[in-house]
Amino acid sequence: MKVAFVTAALVAAGFAGPMQAAGFPAKPVRIVVPFAPGGAADLLIRPVGERLSELLGQAVLIDNRGGAGGNIGAAMVAQAAPDGYTLLVTTAGVVVANRSLYRALAVDPVTALDPVSIIASLPNMLVVSPKFGLATVADVIARAKAKPGTVSFASGGVGTSNHLAGELLKHLTRTDMIHVPYKGGGPAVVATLAGEVTMLFATLPSALQQVKAGRLTPLAVTSRARSPAVPDVPTMAEAGVQGFEVSENWVGALAPRGTPAAVVARLHKAIVQAVEDAEVRARLLTAGYEVVASTPATMGEAIRRQSQSWAQIVKAAGIELQ
Questions:
Q1: In the chain, how many domains are there?
Q2: Low-confidence spans in the chain with pLDDT less than 50
Q3: Is the bond preceding 25 in cis, omega lying within 30 degrees of 0?
Q4: What is the pTM for the complete model shown?
Q5: Looking at 204, 221, 238, which one is the last position of a domain?
Q6: Looking at residue 4, what DSSP letter applies?
Q7: Both 115 and 153 in a single domain?
Q8: CATH no. for residue 208?
Q9: What was the pLDDT predicted at 247?
């Protein structure tokens, strides 16, 4: 009775974090990916999740919940119990751009989620199907200007990084291109391969194997510098589009706001150990990711900084979503 009373008193006083973390995790951990399978977040968390399961001693369950540009999955995690058993693994746009894109959000991901770690960074890569005969970014722009409304670009959904990259290209080049959203990065790549759309600003890992196989033609990467995974592919600036930079794209993990600090620390430590595993790291590097494994504080600062820069891009492009 005395032990129970002391425990209850500590919980009421807000000192339960370390006690809760002592036995964490005691059951499977669910990782929600707010997009369909085959996108950058999904491709990353598969190998990382396997190693996490070993490190945590519990099953790690991947739950793809796509829709509304990632907002559905983000809201699901934000509304989950803040106990560390439900995490969000997503690309940056869901937490840094959606609050500027959407007129109203059921849940603000910046205030409703706690950063755990950026896991890896990655640029987007502009790719086209060889069937369109476009060899350079200049070719794309020339066709869009010559035949307005005939060049289309796919995305993994409204508000995703590939959507915003396409809108930014339209804005900077003053061209009329058609946005075609799909239910995730994987389906967007498939559509581009099939020639349903002209092009896609694909996350590099989701399109890299198709580029290597010659089924997609890479035109440029969106980062400041060329990617080591595709060193022969120019940046957008090198390709002639000055002012185009969507370089700070990443995949990271977040927990519901209020998750005990000790639990967040345990999850962060396991993520760092997972991506430092030689086999996991090699798989990620080969796929086009750059392993980062930031601290929660560093991730929080990145979110605040990028939220401001994306707000400027969204305003300049005149995008507003319901």
A1: 2
A2: 1-19
A3: yes
A4: 0.82
A5: 221
A6: H
A7: no
A8: 3.40.190.10
A9: 55
The pair of three-digit structure tokens given for residue 260, joined into one six-digit string: 């005990």
- Supply the DSSP symbol for 81: -
Assess whether 118 and 39 both reside in one domain: yes
pLDDT for res 102: 84
User: Of 154, 156, 151, 198, nearest to 177 (Cα)?
Assistant: 151
Dig out the tokens for 70 from the structure. Answer: 């990632």
Q: Residue 86 maps to which CATH number? A: 3.40.190.150
Alpha helices per DSSP H over the chain:
2-13, 17-22, 40-56, 71-78, 93-96, 98-101, 109-112, 137-146, 161-173, 185-194, 204-212, 261-276, 278-287, 296-317
239 within a domain of the structure (yes/no): no
* 3-class SS of residue 134: coil
Q: Which domain holds residue 168?
A: 124-221
pLDDT tens figures, 1-46: 333 433 333 344 444 444 456 789 999 999 999 998 988 899 999 9
Structure tokens at 17: 């974090």
- Is 256 contained in some domain? yes
22 occurs within a structural domain = no
pLDDT of res. 54: 97
**Per-residue pLDDT reduced to its tens digit, 230-252:** 999 999 999 999 888 665 789 99
Nearest partner of 52 among 72, 85, 29, judged by Cα: 29
Residue 206 lies in a domain: yes
Task: Look at residues 252, 295, 255, 294 and name the one whose alpha carbon lies nearest to residue 24.
Answer: 255
